[in-house]
Amino acid sequence: EHQEQFQRRYGLEEVVEVFGSTEGGATTMRFPEDPRGSVGAMPPELKLLNEKMEECPPAELDENGKLLNYDDAVGEILNVEGVGRFEEYYKNPQATAAKTEGNMFHTGDLAYYRMGEKDGEQVRFMYFVGRTDDWIRKDGENFLADPLEEILTRFDDIFLCSTYGVPCADGDEHVMAALVLREGGKFDPKKFYDFLDNQGDMSDKWIPDYVRVMENLPQTDTVKILRRVLKKDYFNPDKVSDTMYWRERGETTFKPFSKADYERLRQTFVEAGRDDLLI
User: Fold this and answer.
1) DSSP codes, 193-234
2) At 133, phi and psi to the nearest 5?
3) How distant, in Å, are the alpha carbons of 23, 25, 93 from that of 99?
4) Own/partner pairs for 56-59, CB < 8 Å, 24+ apart?
5) Which CA distances in Å does 113 have to 15, 24, 211?
6) What angle do CA 269, 270, 271 make, to 5 degrees?
7) Continuous H helices in the chain
8) Burial of 226 (0-12, 13-18, 19+ CB in 10 A)
């Protein structure tokens, strides 16, 4: 369909960039004349919606290209007219229900758009930001996991890592890091904390609250780390057999995280009425 559209417009066959979900619920196409960095013009069935299911306004950028209204402009890409070709996830009705809530296709992708002209008409050019699973919210601050992971891999003993948000009794999330050490590497709790505390390009809120040391990280066949699997296990010792560490608010090192620690922590979730997060 996209190739036919390209041929009609240009009268020739040529490679064209197509962006979309594997499930087929949402797709955009970028033509050579579209703005650099965009994933093409948004078709009418795609909308960017915030957590309140309200449509996001266009992005506002300064002269240096910095996004000025990030919190307002960035939203999840949804197909508001239906679920497209998507039918269901195999033997996973819960995931299917979440993906198709409200008879809309929820991509899990975050983006913003800028207005522009195409074929004499005003259109919305979309710019991909990341995945909803890529975001962590701690103490009211939103940040992406990827930049944090880049910083963590500067630590000499870390070969591979993944960072993600886990439940917090006080609201928002805490930060957890799953680490794979280099051959012969050793996790030194104090050395690791001091290293992170001295990185000038990270907020102190980014410093992990929990650390899980693993032999391997769960990955797809295309070597993409499965954060959702790690998030599902979070810091529950009944799910995690790996060695875990943690630090409580104000502490300047990591300490071993035991089942007794988990039970004590779980009680704070019970008292806060948030123990449903520990499933």
Assistant:
1) HHHHHT-TTS-GGGS-SEEEEESS--B-TT--B-HHHHHHHT
2) -70, -15
3) 10, 10, 10
4) 56/112, 56/113, 58/112, 58/113, 58/114, 58/115, 58/124, 59/112, 59/113, 59/114, 59/127
5) 24, 21, 36
6) 90
7) 2-10, 70-73, 93-99, 145-152, 189-197, 227-233, 259-271
8) middle
| Residues 196-231: tens digit of each pLDDT | 999 998 899 999 999 999 999 999 887 889 888 899
Structure confidence at residue 223 (pLDDT): 84
Residue with tokens 């019970």: 270
Judged against a pLDDT cut of 80, whether residue 279 lies above it is answered with no
The closest of 44, 201, 70 to 129, measured between CA atoms, is 70
Q: What is the mean pLDDT of residues 180-189?
A: 96
CA distance 70 to 60: 8
Query: What is the identity of the amino acid at 17?
Result: E
| Contact assessment for residue 41 and residue 126, using Cβ atoms and an 8 Å cutoff | yes
Mean pLDDT of 91-109: 89
pTM for the full predicted model: 0.63
Contact 202, 196 (CB under 8 A): yes
How many angstroms separate the CA atoms of 208 and 255, rounded?
12
Residue-level pLDDT at 95:
83
